[in-house]
Amino acid sequence: MADVCVIDGGYIGLSAALHLAERGYRVVMVEENRIGCGASGHNGGQIVTDFSGDLAPLERRHGFDHASRHRRLAGRPRRCCAR
After folding, report:
1. 22-47 residue pLDDT tens
2. Cβ-count burial 70-82 (b if 16+ within 10 Å, e if not)
């Protein structure tokens, strides 16, 4: 019997299962394909070099300071890769 069932044997699922097992949980994993093959678009290593979306809705909802910080942080990957 398992304490936790991790659904998805990709990078994030494997990481979750490993960390849980290291903390003493009995883990079972369910994966449709081969364990460890493939990555989702969210963890596949892309570097987004710019944010082209309209920040007006973000500014209306969270304020100018938050939207400005988001705009500034969105450009960091490009600046880091340019070094």
Report:
1. 999 999 999 888 888 766 655 666 65
2. eeeebeeeeeeee
What is the rounded CA–CA span in Å between residue 17 and residue 29? Answer: 7
Residues 54, 74 contacting (CB under 8 angstroms): no
Cα–Cα nearest to 10, from 22, 18, 2: 18
Could you tell me which residues come within 8 angstroms of residue 52 by beta carbon, excluding any fewer than 6 positions away? none
Q: What type of residue sits at position 42?
A: H
pTM equals 0.47
> Hey, how many other C-beta atoms are within 10 angstroms of the C-beta on 6?
21
Residues in the chain: 83
Give the residue among 46, 39, 31 at the shortest CA–CA distance from 11.
39
